[in-house]
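Let's sit down with a protein and look at its sequence and fold side by side. Go ahead whenever you are ready, and we will take it from there.
>
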Amino acid sequence: MLRTLAFKRPSKVLVSSARSKTLRECSGVRGVTSPYTFGRLSKTGSFVPSTSQFASFSTNARPVWEPADYFEQRHVGPTHEETAKMLSALNLSSLDELIDKSVPAAIRSDDPEELKGLDWKGKSESEATEELRRMASKNKVNKSFIGQGYYGTKTPAVIFRNLLENPAWYTAYTPYQAEISQGRMEMLLNFQTVVSDITNMDIANCGLLDEGTSAAEAMNMSHAQNKSKRGKYFVSEDCFDQTVSCVETRAQALGIEIVKGDPLSLSEEDLKEYSGVLVQYPNKNGAVVDYGALGERANKAKAVFTVATDLLACSVLKPPGDFGADIVVGSAQRFGVPLFYGGPHAGFMSTKESLKRLMPGRLIGASIDSQGNRALRMALQTREQYIRREKATSNICTAQSLLANIAAAYAIYHGPDGLSEIARRVHGMAVIVKDALVKSGFTMVQDESFFDTIALKVPAGKSANQLGKDAAAAGLNIRIIDDETIGISVDESSTKADLDTLVKVLSGNSGSIDSDGYVEMDFGALSRTTKFLQHQVFNSHHSETQMMRYLTMLERKDITLRDSMIPLGSCTMKLNAASELMPVSWPEFANMHPFAPLDQAQGYMEMIESLNSWLASLTGFAAVSTQPNSGAAGEYAGLLCIKGYHEANGEGHRNVCLIPTSAHGTNPASAVLAGMKVVGVKNNAAGEVDIDDLRAKAEKHKDNLSAVMITYPSTYGAFEEKIKDLIQIVHDNGGQVYMDGANMNAQLGTCSPGGIGADVCHLNLHKTFAIPHGGGGPGVGSIGVARHLAPFLPGHSVVPVSGEGDNVQVKATGQVAAAPYGSAGILPISWMYIRMCGGEGLLRSSRTAILNANYMAKQLENYYNILFRNEHGMCAHEFIVDLRHLKEHGLSEDDVAKRLADYGFHAPTMSWPLHGAIMIEPTESESKAECDKLISALISIHGEIQDVIDGKVEAKASPLHNAPHTAAMVTASDWNFPYSRETAAFPAIWSKQNKFWPSVSRLDNVYGDRNLVCSCPTVEELME
């Protein structure tokens, strides 16, 4: 086994090295560690453990010219002294013994191959930052006129500083715990209002992954609305290419026929053949087409009419809701969100009221709390599609909440007049460029009005490709449509100097801008006449002072990692270090258009290739793709790889997917979207997959078996002993093994999906690899695959890609996200995390995560029933606390969750994977002291539970039932509870020192669903 606190004496003693050659290479033992982590070497070559992470600062263990800012000591919470105490509490002598008793011997690696692809010792924070900055400098950020759904924008500094770069916003989790999430839910409600108001639709969700996949979701809704009776879907030939490709990928898996063409040519009778029709407004060449008559025909034919649109354009153009749209989709990127080389950006969807229960994603709605005050919550949670498992029409879980919040803040800061003014300026510049180029011999492709984009035929004798090269040499990027046609999109960031240069380059210095800058804006019958964003919030915060205070007021309402541990099981809420996030804001990464020529994106290419090489090594796979922009998208992409593999082998009939009943709801939802038939597999009483049931079903479906989806460690927080047997059974019956990587944090350096025998695994980079959750997104669901599946990784229609690694194939098909590299803008976070940890740091992080979970479980076992531990009494990196007995006494796990807010803690994962239980995952970033605080809170809560059980207090009179307690409740003149105000609000010593006050009391969920309100209150409603 790998040893960390004892090893043989090396043949040559080296104290440290800035390069990858380390003590492990001299001794042949991988357990040797840097002096700042586990300890140092004595002069005799024996290991002297440090009593603290900083103990060796007073020694001569390192040359003085080596950096002191090593990351591991900042990322891992417990000091080595605390680690020793925690091990002692578990009656263990070392981390090695912990791993021996937690991880099955059959899958452990004594000398992990997975870490050999990484430098053993991580780089210091300053070294890693400098290395990544050198990569970033290889990106050449030209001024972009490419457009196609991605536009330059100006993120207001007050939003950049106080939201995008603020841990109070980016370290939050999805707002399932409403009482401690009111701030970000208010901003998400603002986003919903922005979308529904500007598109003039009844209701909007709080964000999707991007525009392309939003359109694919709309197709699914159309198919479901017509009860799958119409097998064809019509897509306008003038939609963005990447959007069409996303729709085609989704349709192919589901057996839906895509027909492309001119939608205006469709008669009412034609439309009766289609479940729906998708158009782009304005279209990809910039034309603003009147789709009013088409909308009427589609509505009569009961074909769902979907419009992909641009929010800025709709601030001055007739909104889709005014010409019959049933669904409106798009991207909110140009509302203050940087280009980020394609993502993350907030996709959006708004619909008619009648479609709200088919709508994917999350919905924020208003309700009331126990005191009768207005409060927000995630409305109609049971309509979240992935919860419906194999009956789902979408697998959306994580979306892009942080980016939706930025877009909403942008709309608030500018207000309706400010947005219209930006739109007027953008349109005016596009008109000026068009006029100048037409004078220089260019001709417009279309006669219709345009907003910000024009398509032009180049003068005779000129080549569009050559003009593109000339523009690039001058620091400008234009869109090359074909060798005779170019496209130009103007945006908020465009300046007169940019336009001057553009016109001169394209005209060969013969043309120039001859305009005073005053342009009349008139779209005729397609001009917007309806007002929008008249709500108070969009007309109050236009100064920086007001906006800063509004953002601060909202952030104070939420518990985030800035406040305390977020112990959500299966969510891995670890540290999101500032040094990891800083590069995201660098202009070289933030301002790159996803369709920029690849020779301008060499820094991105180098960063992505090195990151994916590390991920391939850590997973034991041959190749990795970063295109999937969420964990669920990774599941979908991985299953498509399996589907493609079977089809290539002439076994496209294989469509059965075995899924344990304990799986996360996205697993069966993803399988359905991939065109598979879900067959459930039982879990036994120990929480493990029932091998006999799996064998029986694999053999029953052996002729059609496509895959099994398995989470490892399991969703019950355990390393299942028979995982290799399970994999062999599936392989023996012709299936492939998909491993859900949600719990990958427990595997790093000890085992790997590929080493265990899986064929494909998605990685939640927003869990294991430190990308923040952002209050519900962004996320990255990179997929690693074995060599035989590598040719089937996602491609891209605009920028053909392949993933990185062995046996990959560049292609333009199989696209699962709008951008070639998905949410590329946040990949520097995971790059920095791995580079700074190195193999040693990742190994220690994983082992400490397992240690923290087992330590907490041990401390709580005398108070609660801890479920699903192995024969040694050990769990993996998370554990389940059984609270099912509370129901007998008038209490529930919900009461425990809400009471924890009074202690300043976010609740653990509730009622999943086991109803009536909670699941706790402390991660490696939490210190022993923080773990002890949560332990103390849960022990105290156990006492309150016992008081109810013993009859000392009625359940409804217990602080559990009435939690959380707000400042308004405990300072009210009347106090009608049998316990003291101090017990209510200050149940622990630390709560007196650093109190988090929930802004609302217990939510009334039933009221909220019966009185659904999903937009901001109007001025009149506020007056009431």
Summary: Residues 227 and 275 are 9 Å apart (CA to CA). The first strand starts at residue 39 and ends at 41.
